């Protein structure tokens, strides 16, 4: 188990993942938060659910945060 604090992610945030989606897109919009994170590809619209631990490992950058802050 990790002692790290969970990533501050909110519905509506745009994120860039480390791996490219088969459609060619890197950017996703967060549609659901909790133990599982729901994301939607901004290139093709595909929706995917990931466990929070896997999502946090895959996030490369938070592009556009809802609260106006960028990481």
Describe the structure.
- The chain has 71 residues and is mostly beta strands.
- It has 1 helix and 5 strands, in the order ββββαβ.
- It has one helix at 52-58, and strands spanning 14-17, 27-32, 36-41, 47-51, 59-64.
- Strands 4-3-2-1-5 form a 5-stranded antiparallel sheet, with helices on one face.
- The longest helix has 7 residues, at 52-58.
- The protein is globular, with a radius of gyration of 12 Å.
- The chain starts with 13 loop residues before the first strand and ends in a 7-residue tail after the last strand.
- The mean pLDDT is 87.
Give the secondary structure arrangement, pairings included.
Elements lengths: L13 E4 L9 E6 L3 E6 L5 E5 H7 E6 L7
Antiparallel strand pairs: 1-2, 1-5, 2-3, 3-4
Question: Any descriptors?
Answer:
mainly beta; 1 helix; SH3 type barrels; 38% strand; 71 residues; 5-stranded antiparallel sheet
